[in-house]
């Protein structure tokens, strides 16, 4: 049952491209908030299932979904997927009217964000890179954090829509800034998870009651979202949920590539990326990222 409350905003014509574990509930929040939503998904059956659940419309191509939309939003897999839904005769840019705004919620590279920003401007369109943090639970509960890069006017146009599924929507700078901020987010999370995994493994080796220890230290300076939400499942050796190792490796690949370009030193992040590669090799590509602790047993 949906219990999310929405701010009262004028109804907009919206397209949403990509109905995975994030996009499906995000598009649903938009429709429930009173917007006219048309969806597209590469696997058409997912679009049909979404429409059966929410009552919105479907389209056979991104261009058809985008036709007549004030704002087109996307949440797909990677840079190539993003280009596939934006460019070409069937891409969203081909169907969008002059002045319309494209909002990309994919975690992608800053380079592709800048590329598509330039292409959109050449066509009289607007492009906002807007990756999200909060995972599937954040998408379902309408509690995502959205990090945006782009121009101020289109950001102002898309912000009320993103607020339908987010608790924070922030413009952080010019095109690419949202993707760079998401990279900062992933660097911080990778380090926190490795630290938490080592702490739990150390405490268990020391013979401590780690449920009790975590409850105590979770009230002090060691507290974090990861501790609050992942320490107990680490103790239970349960990882069949959450943000997958495969996805984190994709994200850290973007981080490390950007670091090579800008000269940032990320030794701990590079090491944790190697640890995730070991988990993938062990068959854990779909495990939650907190599965780092399995390496320490």
Q: Please, could you describe this protein's structure?
A:
The chain is of the alpha/beta class and 297 residues long. The chain has two domains: 13-175, NAD(P)-binding Rossmann-like Domain (Rossmann fold, 3-Layer(aba) Sandwich), CATH 3.40.50; 180-296, N-(1-d-carboxylethyl)-l-norvaline Dehydrogenase, domain 2. The protein is 51% helix and 12% strand. The chain is built from 13 helices and nine strands. It has helices at 23-32, 44-54, 62-66, 79-86, 92-95, 110-122, 135-141, 152-162, 177-205, 210-217, 225-235, 245-262, 267-281; strands at 13-17, 36-40, 57-58, 71-74, 101-104, 126-129, 132-133, 144-148, 166-171. The strands form two sheets. It has a six-stranded parallel beta sheet with strand order 3-2-1-4-5-6. α9 crosses α12 (245-262). It is globular. The model has no long low-confidence stretch (mean pLDDT 97).
Poorly predicted spans: none
Enter the CATH topology name of the largest domain: Rossmann fold
Profile the largest sheet.
6 strands, parallel
> For this structure, what is the CATH homologous superfamily of the largest domain?
NAD(P)-binding Rossmann-like Domain
Give the distance, in angstroms, between the N- and C-terminal Cα atoms.
40 Å
Q: How many helices?
A: 13
Strand-pairing-aware structural class = alpha/beta
Please write out the topology.
Blueprint: E1 13-17, H1 23-32, E2 36-40, H2 44-54, E3 57-58, H3 62-66, E4 71-74, H4 79-86, H5 92-95, E5 101-104, H6 110-122, E6 126-129, E7 132-133, H7 135-141, E8 144-148, H8 152-162, E9 166-171, H9 177-205, H10 210-217, H11 225-235, H12 245-262, H13 267-281
Parallel strand pairs: 1-2, 1-4, 2-3, 4-5, 5-6, 8-9
Antiparallel strand pairs: 7-8
């Amino acid at each position: 049952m949906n219990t999310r409350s929405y701010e009262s905003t004028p109804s907009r014509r919206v397209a949403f491209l990509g109905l995975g574990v994030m996009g499906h509930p995000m598009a649903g929040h938009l429709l429930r908030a009173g917007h006219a939503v048309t969806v597209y998904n590469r696997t058409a059956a997912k679009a049909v299932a979404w429409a059966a659940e929410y009552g919105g419309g479907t389209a056979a191509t991104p261009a058809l979904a985008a036709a007549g939309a004030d704002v087109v939003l996307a949440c797909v897999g990677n840079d190539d997927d993003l280009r596939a839904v934006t460019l070409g005769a069937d891409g969203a840019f081909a169907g969008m009217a002059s002045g319309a705004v494209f909002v990309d919620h994919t975690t992608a590279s800053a380079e592709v964000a800048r590329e598509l920003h330039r292409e959109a401007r050449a066509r009289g369109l607007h492009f906002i890179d807007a990756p999200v943090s909060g995972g599937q639970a954040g998408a379902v509960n309408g509690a995502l954090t959205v990090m945006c890069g782009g121009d101020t006017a289109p950001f102002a146009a898309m912000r009320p829509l993103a607020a339908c599924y987010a608790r924070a929507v922030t413009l952080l700078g010019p095109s690419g800034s949202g993707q760079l901020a998401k990279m900062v987010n992933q660097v911080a999370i990778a380090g926190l998870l490795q630290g938490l995994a080592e702490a739990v493994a150390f405490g268990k080796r020391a013979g401590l009651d780690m449920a009790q220890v975590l409850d105590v230290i979770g009230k002090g300076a060691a507290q974090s979202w990861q501790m609050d939400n992942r320490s107990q499942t680490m103790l239970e050796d349960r990882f069949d949920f959450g943000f997958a190792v495969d996805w984190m490796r994709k994200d850290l690949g973007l981080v490390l590539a950007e670091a090579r370009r800008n000269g940032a030193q990320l030794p701990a992040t590079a090491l944790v990326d190697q640890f995730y590669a070991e988990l993938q090799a062990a068959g854990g590509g779909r495990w939650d990222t907190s599965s780092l602790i399995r390496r320490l047993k």
